[in-house]
Write a structure and sequence with these properties.
Layout: H1 7-21, E1 25-29, H2 32-43, E2 47-55, E3 58-65, E4 67-68, E5 71-72, E6 77-79, E7 88-89, E8 103-108, E9 111-114, H3 115-121, E10 125-131
Antiparallel strand pairs: 1-3, 2-3, 4-5, 6-10, 7-10, 8-9, 8-10
Length: 132
């Protein structure tokens, strides 16, 4: 395996590419942060399933993609904050994605959560990604 400098961007790219090519699932190396991002995607209804499997002693994240007819539920994913340029927002500055159709994923002091949950808990943090 190669060394990836931005594992969240790698996960989002894998999901985006698989959704665009009509794949039924995505497999990526597991980390706690990637697991939390996948959990949020499942809770918000963008993916159908998330599981962690171990192959030859290494954990992998298996994400089942969700489709309506032949179209993927995920239209696009965009990495916002990156290793070279972090973007932080307060609880009142959390952006709406496509007028509320999409979600933002934030890393807060209370853990990784969706924009809806962060607004409800009144916490801000690092803006990781937009999903719509």
């Amino acid at each position: 395996m190669s060394n990836v400098s931005d594992p969240i961007a790698d996960l989002l790219t894998r999901v985006r590419n698989a959704a665009r090519s009509g794949k039924s699932e995505v497999v990526a190396p597991f980390s706690k942060m990637k697991g939390e991002v996948a959990r949020i995607l499942k809770e918000e209804g963008f993916v159908s399933s998330v599981s962690v499997e171990t192959v030859e002693g290494r954990p992998f994240l298996r994400i089942g993609l969700k489709y309506v007819g032949e179209r993927s539920v995920i239209t696009d994913l965009k990495r916002v904050s990156r290793p070279g340029l972090r973007r932080y927002v307060g609880s009142t500055e959390i952006p709406r994605v496509l007028s509320g159709i999409g979600i933002s994923i934030l890393s807060t002091s209370s853990g990784i959560m969706s924009s809806r949950e962060a607004k409800r808990k009144n916490v801000g943090g690092e803006l990781l990604a937009f999903v719509w």
